[in-house]
Each structure stands twice: as C-alpha cells, then as structure tokens.
Amino acid sequence: MFKNTKSSYGIVAIALHWLMAAMVIGLFGLGLYMVELTYYDSWYKGSLDLHKSVGITLVALLIFRFAWRALGTQPEPLSNSSPVLNKVAHTAHLLLYVLLCIIVISGYLISTADGRSIEVFTLFSIPAIDFSVANQADIAGKIHYYVACSLIGLVVLHALGALKHHFIDKDKTLIRMIKPQKDDL
Fold it and tell me: In this structure, what DSSP letter does residue 68 have?
C-alpha cells in the first residue's frame, strides 16, 4: 500500500516518518558533538558540512512530507481513542512541524550569516540571502540550540506516547506507523 487510507498510513508516509526521525536524532547528536570541537580539530569542517548537508536534505523531505500530507488522505483516529487525547496528539504533531521549521530557518541564518552559500554534499549550493542583522549567527545559534532541545524533548514524549499506546492501551497506533494495515479501524 503506497498511499494512506482512512485507516492506515501508506509506505511513503511511514518511510518519511522514520527517515526524518532518524535524521532529526542524528542531526541533534552531531550538533552536540560538533559544538564541542575547536577550529583545529580534524573533523571541525567535516562535521559542519555534514550537518548542513543533512539539514538541507531534511528540509527537502519536510517539504515533500507537507505536500504528501496536503494532497493525500489522512488516517482517522482509532475508534477507541479519546477525543481529548486526539486533540493533544494533533497539537503535538503541529508543534513538531513548527519546531522543525524554526530549526531549519535558524540553521540557514547561522550558516549564511557571513554571506556565503551552503554547500550541499558538494553537489550544489543554497545561496545566502542579501540580508543580515548584527550578531545574526549568535542569535540564530541560540534559537537553533534551544528549539532543537525542545524538539528532542517533544520527540521523546511522542515516542513514549506511542509506546503507551502499544503496551498499555494495546491498540494499533504504533503498528499503523510501522506497516500498512488492512481497512479496519
């Protein structure tokens, strides 16, 4: 099943979810590692280049995910789920997207504060906009860090919620995001 149905996520949505989750966690770990490096460390430039390139790839996947979501069907909540918890889950998902967008924008502002473009895996460049403010890299850096920490906190809550659904509620919430399901809510 390629596309979503009213009762299940399709393989595209599932793959996007897990690929983006791995990228977010990997980028967070790499970000924490690279800020501890000094200019003279052997992997200083390499870690920055990798972080930026994977970040731009994440942006492309995020845009594709927004389009896929907007143009496709979204599975309905499970029949045994609470309307209040559904609202909380929906709000949490929106917040995940908002935080991702803020991280992307702040990362771009950090990387282009000196007017240089962003090299993406040495394949192409994302140009800097002709705009900057005083201390742009520092301000955007603080925003990037704190929003990234907030995102990871929300990701942990999201994962704990999925585990609760699976092990305590014993419903198909987590299973629906692992493999496509037959049409039964």
Answer: H
